[in-house]
């Protein structure tokens, strides 16, 4: 999915024209610095659900509706089939996408702050530098998706991220170190079977009852994360930082890999 990781010039131009004010800097994962989140671009919609449905209905076979850099904030798009759209750099803050189908859709650099995406399908989608702080993603399906966005404070109970790539992009750092960031996110009961979570950021996250079997957590930042009841059989913890993490009630900890190579194990919370 490397072809999605650079912002096209057309998108950058559109961002500049809408007055988003990136302050000349998109080189960090926290892209909110210098932005006016109360501006029309982040709070209003330039089309209705009916407009969107009509445009999708007119698509020729194989055609994709390009909604890059469009403002769709606050719309109720619940249960819509949006697989034939492209939402790169779109603003979908506080949008309702409950039960919607976005399988394979490009949402790179999109803004979905406080969006309600309960039960959304994002299988194989690309979420690179996507901003989902405070979003509701309970039961969302990210199977095999590229997930290198900011999910700080998001609710992702029972979300499915099996086979997903949440890892840091260590080859292309033109936008800084991009990776899955889940600080203080609620990932209770989420599934990460076989997921690539290398260098993922999960400080203070709740992973209670999560399924991490076979996940790669190499170099991940897990300080103060709660792993009570989480199944870590086959999970690779090489170099992971578990400072103050609650690891005492992990399931199948003896079947994990490289747990002897974690950082700050002496500072971890081993209480049951």
How are the SSEs ordered, and which strands pair?
Elements: H1 9-17, H2 40-43, H3 49-57, E1 65-66, E2 85-86, E3 126-131, E4 146-150
Parallel strand pairs: 1-2, 3-4
Question: Can you describe this structure?
Answer:
The protein is low in regular secondary structure and 272 residues long. Helix content is 8%, strand content 6%. The longest helix has 9 residues, at 9-17. The termini are far apart. The model is unreliable at 1-7 and 9-29 (pLDDT under 50).
Brief overview:
The chain has helices spanning 9-17, 40-43, 49-57, and strands at 65-66, 85-86, 126-131, 146-150. It is mostly loops. The radius of gyration is 19 Å and the shape is elongated.
Taking Cα atoms only, what radius of gyration do you get, to the nearest Å?
A: 19 Å
Number of extended strands: 4
Strand content: 5-15%
Low-confidence region ranges: 1-7, 9-29
Percent in helix: under 10%
- SSE string, helices as H and strands as E: HHHEEEE
Which short descriptors sum up this protein?
272 residues; little secondary structure; two-stranded parallel sheet; 3 helices; 4 strands; 6% strand; elongated
